[in-house]
Write a structure and sequence with these properties.
Helices cover about 35% and strands about 15% of the residues. The protein is α/β, with parallel strands linked by helices and about 375 residues long. Strand 15, helix 9 and strand 16 form a beta-alpha-beta unit. Helix 5 runs parallel beside helix 6.
C-alpha cells in the first residue's frame, strides 16, 4: 500500500540534514513544516547515503530544518545543489520547534517563519512526505523503532548547559496527543512510541492523565527524555509502568552536589538516587545521562559517576557538551568524525578522551562510519 501523499507545493523542497546520530528519530520540525507547506522532505539523517539524490528534484526554494549538529551537513548540501541549480533560493525553516533532543535548531539563511506557538493548533507531522518514510514505516511496524511524540516544548528550570532552560512549557492537550498516537496506529500500525519532551514530568497531574488516556491504545513506549529526578515519585512510576512504558531515563549529569549547584540543575544527589531506586522497582531498563568535564569537575569525579552507574545497575550515556558555532566545526571528533575537540578546561583533554573511551560500550549510538569499521573488522577476523 502506498502511504506517500501528493506534494502540492512543488516550489519548496525541505531538507533534513545529517546529524550523524539518532537515525531512528525524524526531524520533527521538518515533519511539521511538511504538513503545513505540503512539501516533500529529503531526509539525509535517516538515510545519509547518496547525497546527490537531491539533484533529482528541481525546486524554487530549498528550505533547511537544521539542528546545530547538522550545520556542516546543511552547508555541504546547499553548495552541491547550487552548483546545478544556481537560481534556487536557500531558506531556513523557523518557528516550529527550537529544540529537539537537547539540540537547538539554527538559522542557515533567510527565514521562512511560522508564527504559531507550539500547541494543538499544529497539524500532525507529515512523516509520509519524507523520502525515508518507507524505512520508518517498516521499523515502526516491526516495533524496532519508536514513533516520536512531543507533548510539550520548553523547560522552566535553569540548567546552564541546556538550550531549553528558563521557559514556561508550551503544552498540547492530552486529547490532542492521544489523537496523534491513535492516528499513527490506525494509519501506520505503529507498535511503540517515545516521548521527546524537554520536561515531560513538570506537571505530575498531566503525566497521570496522559498515562490513563493512552492505556487503551495498547502501545509500548519509552520516556528516556524529559524526566526530572526531583519530580519523579512512586505514583508516577506506577502510572508509567501500567500505561505500557518499558524504558525511562534521567538527566543526571554529575553525582557531585557542588557541581549540581554550579550548573543550576536544581537537584541533589539524594533526590537522584531516590528516583533511580524507585525506577528500578518498576523498570528493567533505566538509563542516565552524564556530562563529563563540567565546570568544577575532575577526572576522578567523572570516573566516580561511572562506578555509581555500575553500583545502581543502570545503563549510562557519557558525553561532553560542545557549544555550537557556525564558524567552526565544533563537534566531538571521536563520535562525529569532525575536527573538533572537547572545550572543557575542567581537566586535560587527554583525560577527557580517556573517560570517553572507557564508556564507549555504554553509549547507545554508534556513528555510521564506526559501524562500517566494526563490520569490516569482524569480517576480516572471520576470513582470517
Amino acid at each position: 500500500m502506498a502511504y506517500h501523499q501528493k506534494y502540492e507545493n512543488s516550489k519548496m523542497l525541505i531538507i533534513a540534514p545529517d546529524c550523524r546520530a539518532n537515525r531512528d528519530i525524524p526531524n520533527l520540525a521538518a515533519g511539521y513544516a511538511a504538513a503545513v507547506y505540503s512539501a516533500r522532505v529529503i531526509d539525509f539523517n535517516t538515510n545519509p547515503r547518496n547525497l546527490k539524490r537531491i539533484l533529482n528534484y528541481k525546486t524554487e526554494i530549498l528550505a533547511f530544518s537544521i539542528q546545530s549538529r547538522a550545520y556542516t551537513s546543511a552547508r555541504q548540501i546547499a553548495v552541491l545543489y547550487q552548483k546545478k541549480y544556481s537560481d534556487v533560493l536557500i531558506k531556513s525553516i523557523n518557528g516550529f520547534l527550537d529544540i529537539q533532543c537537547c539540540y537547538e535548531f539554527v538559522d542557515f539563511a533567510d527565514k521562512i517563519e511560522y508564527s504559531e506557538k507550539f500547541s494543538d493548533n499544529y497539524p500532525f507531522p507529515a512523516y509520509e512526505n519524507f523520502d525515508t518514510f518507507d524505512i520508518y514505516l517498516k521499523n515502526w511496524q516491526r516495533g524496532s523503532w519508536s514513533y516520536p511524540l512531543m507533548t510539550s516544548l520548553g523547560c522552566p528550570y535553569s540548567c546552564i548547559y541546556c538550550n531549553s532552560r528558563n521557559r514556561k512549557p508550551l503544552m498540547r492537550t492530552i486529547e490532542n496527543c492521544y489523537s496523534e498516537l491513535e492516528n499513527a496506529k490506525k494509519k501506520w500500525n505503529i507498535k511503540k512510541f517515545l516521548i521527546l519532551d524537554d520536561c515531560f514530568n513538570f506537571d505530575e497531574k498531566r503525566v497521570l492523565q496522559f498515562c490513563e488516556a493512552i492505556k487503551k491504545l495498547g502501545l509500548k513506549w519509552s520516556c528516556a527524555n524529559g524526566l526530572r529526578a526531583d519530580r519523579f515519585n512512586e505514583n508516577v512510576a506506577i502510572a508509567l509502568a501500567e500505561a505500557g512504558c518499558e524504558h525511562l531515563g534521567f538527566g543526571v549529569e554529575t553525582i557531585d552536589d557542588e557541581i549540581l549547584k554550579q550548573i543550576k540543575k536544581g537537584e541533589t544527589l539524594e533526590q537522584i538516587e531516590n528516583a533511580v531506586k524507585i525506577a528500578k522497582k518498576y523498570f528493567n531498563n533505566v538509563h542516565c545521562f552524564f556530562i563529563i568535564g563540567l565546570p568544577g569537575s575532575t577526572f576522578e569525579k567523572d570516573l566516580a559517576a561511572l562506578e555509581w552507574s555500575k553500583k545502581f545497575g543502570i545503563s549510562a550515556h557519557f558525553s561532553y557538551y560542545v557549544p555550537f558555532n557556525s564558524e567552526k566545526e565544533l563537534y566531538d571528533k571521536i563520535f562525529y568524525g569532525c575536527d573538533a575537540e572537547p572545550l572543557s578546561d575542567a581537566y586535560s583533554k587527554e583525560l577527557q578522551k580517556k573517560i570517553y573511551e572507557i564508556t564507549e560500550d555504554m553509549r547507545p549510538e554508534v556513528s555510521f562510519n564506526m559501524l562500517k569499521k566494526i563490520k569490516k573488522y569482524i569480517l576480516k577476523k572471520i576470513i582470517c
